[in-house]
Amino acid sequence: EALIKSAVSFLSSPNVQSADTAKKVAFLTKKGLSAKDIEEAFRRVNQEAPSIPATATTTAAPVANAAPPAPLIPTRPTYQAGPPSVIYQPLPPAPAMPIQKLIAMAVLFGVGAVSVTAGIVSIVK
Length: 125
Prior knowledge:
There is one protein chain. Helix 1 (2-12) crosses helix 4 and helix 3 crosses helix 5. It contains 6 helices and no strands. It is mainly alpha-helical. 57% of the residues lie in helices and 0% in strands. The protein is rod-shaped.
């Protein structure tokens, strides 16, 4: 009786009512209901009770699970035996230097060169 009540609540669900009757019967059979229990559940819900022969209950469940979908997992590439190969990627080009930065560096190097030269000259004298 508990199985029939759960079947009635299952069949009363709005999502299930639009489903195909064969799928409903297959699901209820998979849950362990007999053909008589399924017919009683359909009667209580006021739906048209399907005619279920005793042999149909044993074949209904495997039909629903006959061909599971293939997994969508990509296969890994197979590598041949040998030393590992290292793949080098080229370096990206150096960013262009702005003209202000270039002038500032030239001035700094010029001042540095002049000060080093002046220091050496003062030591030599």
